[in-house]
Amino acid sequence: MINFLKSFFIFLFFFSCTSNPYKATNKIYKQQAKQYAATIKKIPPTQLVSDSIPPSPFWVGTTNFNMRKPFYVIIHHTAQHSTEQTLNTFTKPATSVSAHYVIGKNGQVYQMLNDYMRAWHAGVSRWGNQVDMNSASIGIELDNDGYSNFDSLQINSLLVVLSRLKADYNIPTANFIGHADIAPARKTDPNWRFPWKLLAEKGYGLWYDDKREPVPADFNHITGLRIVGYDVKDTSSAIVAFKRHFLQDTTRGITPFAKELLFNLQSKYF
Fold first, then answer.
1. What does the pLDDT read at residue 44?
2. pTM score, two decimals?
């Protein structure tokens, strides 16, 4: 019996060591993280690159610093057909794309990158005056082909992750947004079925009031979109992105109702 148990535990040990299909890419992750850690630990030189600058007599390390923290959370849909396909995509160097978290339809959460590290999820994007969203944000990918509803298990797990991120990094409520919000001319994710209203009710993102003031005759909706954060270089795309997020509507053109919601929302972003 003892020999049997011993053999059984040895089997479990070797099975657990060999069952992870991402063992090779995990090793690469550790190697890259080690390289970055070594860079961070390097003491800066006292002589800068220019000979015209006199060298300092010694290095002085400040005692007042910490890690840079994420300020935004960007939510995506994967536009792929399974969690496994997405994990595979995010572990191939040739794709040059990644995210901090991938959440499957069944609610399973894969954290693929330390929160303090910079993932490649936002691409060319902008929100307000922030033009390098990858450097300022956490990227969360939801397993969804871009046309389907989001499973309740998946949304429940997302809410748990968002709760931790908001608490750990003091992320402002207004800074939980979608990929299409920051790249309206390029992206549509998360698709119009995403429950932004539910997230706002939980404290992740802003929402319009049920009771709203009349819209002034001189209200400029393009200025309103810019105040909220949208890049209005492509005005038509910015309007669609706004309507997708707050109206679950993907049609083009501003409408009186959309203007009313925008007028109500803009004051929340000051």
1. 81
2. 0.90
User: Rounded distance, CA 23 to CA 12, Å?
Assistant: 17
- For tokens 């479990």, the residue is 12
Choosing from 84, 141, 213, 260, the catalytic residue is: 141
What SS3 state is found at 262? helix
Predicted confidence (pLDDT) at residue 197 exceeds the cutoff of 70: yes
How would residue 28 be classed by pLDDT, with cut points 50, 70 and 90? very high
Distance CA 177, CA 230 (A): 11
Across the strands, what pairs with 109?
103
Task: Determine what percent of the chain falls in helix, strand and coil, rounding each to the nearest 5.
Answer: 45, 10, 50
Burial class of 1 by CB neighbour count within 10 A (0 to 12, 13 to 18, 19+): exposed
d(CA 249, CA 242): 9
**Cα 140 to Cα 111: distance, rounded to the nearest angstrom:** 9
Q: Each residue of 135-170: pLDDT tens digit?
A: 999 999 999 999 999 999 999 999 999 999 999 999
- For the question of residue 213 being annotated catalytic, the response is no
pLDDT of residue 49: 65
Residue in 102, 98, 99 with CA at minimum distance from that of residue 84: 102
- Token pair, residue 42, equals 């390097």
- pLDDT above 50: residue 223: yes
Q: Alpha-carbon distance 130 to 232, whole Å? A: 14
Distance CA 99, CA 119 (A): 5
The full set of domains in the chain, from first to last, is 68-206 (3.40.80.10), 221-269 (no CATH)
Cα(93)–Cα(215) distance, integer angstroms: 50
Q: Which residues pair with 103 in a beta bridge?
A: 109, 142
